[in-house]
Design goal:
Glutaredoxin, 10 strands, alpha+beta, five-stranded mixed beta sheet
């Protein structure tokens, strides 16, 4: 479900103020400049963050956050140290994996997963249980991934409920974490069940349907009900949401394949081509996947 939204519209607004003769490092001046660049009217809130050190020599990273009606979008700019030049785009270090920036931000510790530990190709999916496009992608992944790649692939699932669009997506994510906390082996049954019942579930009946589902499985229903009622796993879901925002994710589903960002629902043939390419590439590159020596997991005693 795409969150990207158009700032230009038919609504009229007062003529923008002239651009102050100042530096792009002046937040007020930069906001005026960006509003003019993208035709952003006053109904959209724009926040210019503080400049941060950049991997591009001679420049700062400046993130501009735009929001309206519960939707949001971030823009990243590179601003020269004298504040006179602005660059927008991607910066790559030829000596490193081109997706290293995102790889460094993809935290998979304690996330539900299936596939082979130490796999050559790691997929990290940010998804929303109420999103119809996520449902289609989930079915594609669950049907094809392990049958095609029984040893080379591992997938991690991270919740990114779009609360402003989907009223029961976050409660479902919290409930899923409750299932995972109690019985990790049952999590993927829960995952498949929610997507299969997506059209039947509402914010009002989610808990009752889930408890009915749990009674037929090795799950303590009373414990699960308490976990849901107290929102005991909400912090875990919030952390995944924060991880998604740190990556600049604006829509679901968003899938990362060894750090390569793929936005929107994919066809299996497209994904398979990317995975096949990555398997061959990693035979010599060894700069991604779980066997590359670049593990992003936390190092904790007893953690697997």
């Amino acid at each position: 479900m795409l969150l990207l939204f158009s700032f230009a519209g038919a609504l009229a607004w007062p003529a923008p103020a002239p651009v102050p003769k100042s530096s792009a490092l002046d937040k007020a001046a930069f906001e005026v400049y960006v509003r003019h660049l993208y035709v952003i009217g006053p109904q959209v809130k724009v926040v210019v963050e503080d400049p941060k050190p950049s991997q591009l020599p001679g420049f700062y990273d400046v993130v501009v956050h735009a929001s309206a009606d519960g939707r949001s979008q971030d823009f990243t700019f590179f601003v020269s140290r004298d504040g006179q030049k602005i660059v927008q785009g991607n910066v790559y270090d030829f000596r490193q994996n081109p997706f290293k920036t995102d790889l460094d931000r993809l935290k998979t510790q304690f996330q539900p997963s299936f596939g082979t530990p130490g796999a050559t190709v790691v997929l990290v999916e940010f998804s929303d249980y109420q999103c119809p496009f996520c449902k289609e992608e989930a079915k594609m992944l669950r049907t094809n991934l392990l049958s095609a790649y029984p040893k080379q692939v591992r997938l991690y699932f991270k919740d990114f409920p779009l609360e402003q669009l989907h009223p029961w997506a976050k409660p479902a994510a919290i409930a899923g974490r409750c299932v995972f906390r109690q019985n990790p082996n049952a999590y993927w049954d829960f995952h498949d069940w929610v997507y299969d019942r997506q059209e039947e579930i509402t914010a009002d009946n989610l808990k009752s349907k889930l408890l009915e589902w749990a009674r037929a499985r090795e799950i303590d229903v009373l414990q699960l009900g308490r976990c849901i009622d107290t929102k005991a796993t909400e912090a875990e879901v919030n952390q995944n949401i924060a991880d998604a925002r740190a990556l600049g994710i604006n829509s679901t589903p968003t899938l990362f394949v060894n750090g390569r960002r793929l936005v929107g629902r994919l066809e299996w043939t497209t994904l398979r081509n990317i995975i096949d390419y990555e398997i061959e590439y990693q035979k010599t590159a060894k700069n991604a996947g779980e066997d590359c020596g670049c593990d992003v997991k936390l190092s904790l005693p007893g953690a697997r």
